[in-house]
Design goal:
Rossmann fold, nine-stranded mixed beta sheet, 489 residues, 2 domains, alpha/beta
């Protein structure tokens, strides 16, 4: 099968968040199944060129219809750790991809509309006719719209899978992208059964366009698919998803098991696996040494990630003080896009600077992140919403027991040791329901009690977590079933 991903990110060359990891991981898994997999990306001026091998031009003069004229583009090819990537370089005076950053500009919807149009023009003019086009998030929501409204004569047999990684950002705009791409007819596309935003009736919604026009729509975990249809985490997209529920499902993201592997992780001084879990003690000792924590017969509770409302920042703070008050140590590595939150945690860092049981690192450090996953005993993820979540999957892989809130992908991957209906051998962590301090304490207190009172049972729980398979193997197989379904639909 020939599969082409069209995306605004792919780790590690162009990564802002989980989207880039998914495109990279899924493409690699599909290729391992023997399929021809290619990725089309913008050629940002801030690409990580150190991760691209054999970069060279493959299409010198790609003319992209735009505003009734043509924008000239050059298409480059490069190998990204075995992924076959094409990069579209725009020569427009608007400098669509030459901004020093990926997103955050007033004309992001126009920039991504152009990218979607250019990607399809590249497929058309190069003669590529993939069986499946897989596009991602609002940035490429116009791809299926353009394919079925403009490119059917040239590409009548192509099918589209559209994956939504984050419902919060939907790509709303006035009719400018319609006119620029040549779709026109705003009175037609602004209809509620087309691209018309359900709340801003004079605007199109590019994510909605992807849902309406794609042959199949996925999001990044089964429970999040339910939440998006039935709760406010769909950010107003629930009605559209309900109308198209026959082609919508959640498929859990995977984790790169080659990169995240405690048996071979280059960031660790001590390696271990499920059969050598005792060596995790060395990773804990190394973490304490690096962060100047005192040697102690206490568990280490950890948090790694963004500090914002989505991640339950109020409960992260509560977990810190609860751990210190209940015979545990606490480490944090994270930063916030909001200056006020960063300032607050910087203040906490200064306040707790002399506490030998606590270390807060405001910022991000890849090397330290790996050492925390390996050296910690418990890992908290108290999110208000979490489409999939990768941190709990990494924690499980490293034998660090997760304590999570029962939302999104967290609910699909962490099963409470004391209360889940699954067999005891399949339980792997601690779960709480309510986004308040008592909810967090209901799970964290049980986790700390097990560590202190029943160390053998705690080690067994660690081992059970490491036994689970959250690699890309199963998600890859599920996506292949989706592709086969839409090819023969």
């Amino acid at each position: 099968m020939h599969i082409v991903h069209i995306a605004s990110e792919c780790a590690p060359v162009a990564k802002v968040g989980g989207l880039g990891d998914v495109v990279y991981g899924l493409a690699g898994e599909l290729a391992r199944h023997g399929h021809q997999v290619e990725i089309i990306l913008p050629r940002y001026d801030c690409l990580r060129h150190d991760h691209i091998a054999n970069l060279h031009i493959v299409f010198h003069d790609l003319g992209v219809p735009w505003h009734g004229g043509l924008v000239r583009c050059t298409v480059w090819y490069g190998d990204v750790h075995g992924r076959h990537c094409f990069f579209i370089e725009s020569h427009s005076d608007d400098r669509f991809f030459d901004r020093g950053s990926y997103y955050g500009f007033w004309d992001d919807t126009t920039r991504m509309a152009f990218f979607s149009k250019a990607a399809l023009e590249f497929l058309r003019q190069s003669g590529k006719r993939p069986d499946v086009i897989h596009c991602h998030d609002w940035q490429t929501g116009l791809v299926p719209v353009l394919l079925y409204e403009q490119y059917q004569d040239d590409m009548p047999n192509q099918r589209v899978c559209f994956t939504i990684h984050n419902f919060k950002h939907q790509g709303t705009a006035d009719d400018h992208p319609l006119n620029a791409t040549g779709l026109g007819r705003p009175e037609y596309f602004l209809r509620q059964d087309k691209l018309g935003d359900d709340h801003k009736h004079d605007q199109i919604n590019m994510m909605k366009g992807g849902i309406v026009y794609a042959n199949f729509v996925t999001t990044v975990s089964p429970h999040h698919a339910w939440e998006a249809r039935n709760a406010d985490v769909g950010f107003g997209m629930g009605h559209t998803l309900y109308r198209h529920q026959d082609k919508f499902k959640g498929i859990l993201n995977g984790l790169d098991y080659d990169y995240w592997n405690p048996e071979s992780d280059s960031h660790l001084s001590a390696h271990y696996g499920r059969s050598s879990l005792k060596n995790k003690d060395k990773a804990r000792k190394a973490l304490r040494h690096r962060l100047w924590l005192r040697e102690s017969k206490k568990p280490i509770v950890a948090y790694v990630g963004r500090l914002d409302a989505q991640k339950g920042v109020h409960l992260i703070r509560h977990a810190l003080f609860y751990a210190l008050a209940n015979d545990a140590q606490f480490v944090l590595l994270g930063s916030s896009p909001e200056l006020g939150i960063n300032d607050y945690f910087s203040h906490l860092k200064r306040e707790l600077n002399d506490n030998p049981d606590c270390h807060l690192e405001i910022g991000f450090d890849e090397d330290l992140a790996h050492q925390i996953y390996a050296g910690a005993d418990l890992f908290i993820v108290p999110s208000n919403f979490e489409p999939c979540g990768l941190t709990q999957l990494i924690a499980l892989r490293y034998g660090t027991v997760p304590v999570v809130r029962a939302v999104g992908g967290l609910k699909d991957t962490v099963f409470d040791r004391d209360h889940d209906h699954r067999p005891m051998a399949e339980r792997n962590g601690f779960v709480f329901e309510h986004s308040d301090p008592l909810g967090l304490e209901s799970a964290l207190s049980r986790a700390l009690d097990l560590w202190h009172r029943h160390p053998a049972a705690f080690r067994e729980l660690q081992s059970q977590g490491m036994a689970g398979d959250y690699s890309w193997k199963q998600p890859g197989e599920e996506y292949l079933r989706v592709y086969e379904f839409i090819r023969h639909k």
